[in-house]
Amino acid sequence: MSEKWIEVGGLEDIPRQGARVISGADGDVAVFRTQNDEVFALRDECPHKGGPLSQGIVHDKKVACPLHNWNINLETGIAVAPDEGCAARYPIKMEGEKIFLSLTPEGC
Amino acid sequence: MKEKLVVIGNGMAGIRTIEELLKVAPDVYDITVFGDEPYCNYNRIMLSPVLAGEKTIDDIILNDEQWYDDNRITLHKGKRVANIDRFNRKVIAEDGTEEIYDRLLIATGSKPFIIPIPGHELDGVVAFRDIHDVDKMLASAQQHKHAVVIGGGLLGLEAANGLMQQGMSVTVVHLMDSLMERQLDKPAAAMLKTSLEERGINFLMEAQTEAIIGKDRVEAIRFKDGTELYADLVVMAVGIRPNIELARQAGIHCERGIVVNDTLQTFDPKIYAVGECVQHRGEVYGLVAPLFEMGKVCANHLAMHGIGRYEGSVTSTKLKVTGIDLFSAGDFTGNDHTEELVFQDASRGVYRKLVVQDNRIKGAVMYGDTIDGSWYFDLLRDETDISDFRENILFGQAHLGDSGHGEENRIVAMADNAEICGCNGVCKGDIVKAITEKKLFTLDDVRAHTKASSSCGSCTGLVESLLAHTVGGDYSVAPHQKPLCGCTEHTHDEIRAAMKEQELKSIPAVMQKLNWATSDGCPKCRMALNYYLLCAWPGEYEDASQSRYINERAHANIQKDGTYSVIPRMWGGGTTPGELKKIAEVAEKYQVKTVHVTGGQRIALYGLKKAELPLIWKDLGEAGLVSGHAYGKALRTVKTCVGREWCRFGTQDSTHLGIELEKMTWGSWTPHKFKMAASGCPRNCAEATIKDFGVVCVDSGYELHIGGNGGVKVRATDLLCHVKTEDEVMEYCAAFMQLYREHAHYLERTAPWVERVGLTFIKEKVVEDEAERKQLAERFHYSQKFAQHDPWEERAKGVDEHEFVPLKQINA
Questions:
Q1: Residue boundaries of the structural domains of chain B
Q2: CB contact (8 A) between residue A17 and residue B562
Q3: Is B474 in contact with B45 (CB distance < 8 Å)?
Q4: Which domains are delineated in chain A?
């Protein structure tokens, strides 16, 4: 199946070290922008207690969940040890400053 | 090509250093380790429980073969190094194995001291140092009955207890008249001896061994007075000596130990040494905690980062005998210049002694109930002035307000299913299991793995005690000057000083100048730095909202389901029909799930959607309602009673005073949340004596109280002073808040801050020095100029819209 890319916005729409939400019928996706302008997308649900990761603090390539401070790796969706768990990843494609998202989750 | 690092010694110090090195510089060296024992690195301090049959060898292995493989470390097990050829930078083992080094790390530990009396080489005479010794003792216990342990120190008593558990009849022979005389004073030693005797261990005190008698195997020992004692196993546990023969032969400068500088470097700059074999600033150590501190510094220098100095350790001791709780630290004997504070309750089996000089703790001995050991140890290492709480210090920290666990403080006696951490539901058994199975040594490790004490922190003391008790007293205590977080070596105070001195005015500037270890920090340091910069540069610093916790970024409180709650300000706890109507209207319009009256005399609305917050704020603003900052490390509420206006007991207009205080202080950011109250009379209906700043009106004026807390740790306030006018109340309040803002660590409430810096310090600045007080108040008012903007009004008008609106709506 070929990937279906959806344009969700521009890089400047997301604050550095921040995130925005793509809200959908099947739940939200969080799109993160790191200090170095890398963009990642994860299901907006912490593997621990379902906290909205989009509301966390973004540092390096990680986000700290706002509810209980689990750290989730943005590249892999995997919780930083010793915590265990995984949030689904969504592929991101950049065309210049434009961000495209695929709604086919990977991992977990 | 990578440089070659060779480590001599496969024990705790050497391998800990390698672990630290791999953390900071995983790819700098090809690493080779020589160990003379045929095992991987194991936890030597756990040999006592192995001897007592409470653990197996497998339980105490710290690094298995897989670990060496995974980290591409060559391990030469069971190979004793015979020679260091410094000229050719080569290490040669007894079996001929040779390794070239660019850098060499010596971690040869120590050797048991064997008294050279006749018969000391007989079969059945053993030391207590390694797995081999334990095996010999366990084998003897199978076939023989009578053990004599020479030496009534820590190691000797642990050996005696273990052999007794193995079914032997045990006599401890001690040269001195008191057990563990290097760690315990006489009363504590006597209590220890009594309880060990009750368990069945015999003692011969002031007995000097002259010879060990036997043909092939030991049969008896003879004392100087001619008496003899039957024995078929003799354990020599009279002390250890740094194992420095190899270094000495190689011409490395040694005295009692291998002499190293503050970077753990020996006199040969290619050669480092750590652990029990070194002598640093004239001291040699025989406990684990200093090894860990050394390992960290040494690794940093091996990694060529060149930061950090080892400046010596203050050590504490615990006895690893199940069911016996004792603690000792520092200079517990004292001298002509010291005083002793003693608490003794023989029938409860509790004894505590503190040695104090100039109101600072120099040493501590505790027996029976050691829950406060870690607290005393902190006070000792921080050289805290204890004069403000000296009268209660012997009753422990609980008596100062940590009411969380009351009398339940004998961790030894607690059942495995006793809950230690009430926030995260972690029981004693869970913690002990994690410590032993995951080989944890530090409080941070225990927090990461079990979550115990990671939320409100009130059980930290219990978790530390449990850690100390499980791994033995020489667990790795956190360094007393704690770095802000894992991203930096610097402490809170150092960072704040550098910000001012070097005029650092942004988070990246601080991180760059102070050599942050991470690219853009972690949540902990980012939130702290943002506050420190805001406090240091009012009006200049541009708030970094992405470094704020979500509640402060969104100006509402996130709830467990991802919705938000908002609490409008009600000045001094007062409201109007118009405000109440508006709140009711908003609650209906936005289908608020819960309307709740808070403890701070306000009304909270729960279950709000984030995207609707600006609309809600716009509606609330129509009735003049503004942000209550219930989400911030900021001024929260000023609780009042109705005071003189209505109450027949009221002495002053506490309601008006509360409103004035709130008008002056709202919007200010503080290191942690800040709550106030004003009560109209000493009946204190506004509960002013558990607030950060409380006013109790009296007929003659106003009593000002500080440092109270009604939350995690109930702490009644300290009385700061008495003033006569409302104007003075306002000035003292502003000065106190500013002092707290400038001096407390981020996330430190006033209660622990007051305990840390001392009431005397605060009185000096706020009460006794009028000029200082006025300057503090002036700085507070200046910073308020920039802080008093209602964030709700701004956001209702469109500020930070991206925070509230989804980037895109997809209707798949």
A1: 3-110+242-302, 125-238, 492-548, 551-627, 635-787
A2: no
A3: yes
A4: 5-102 (2.102.10.10)
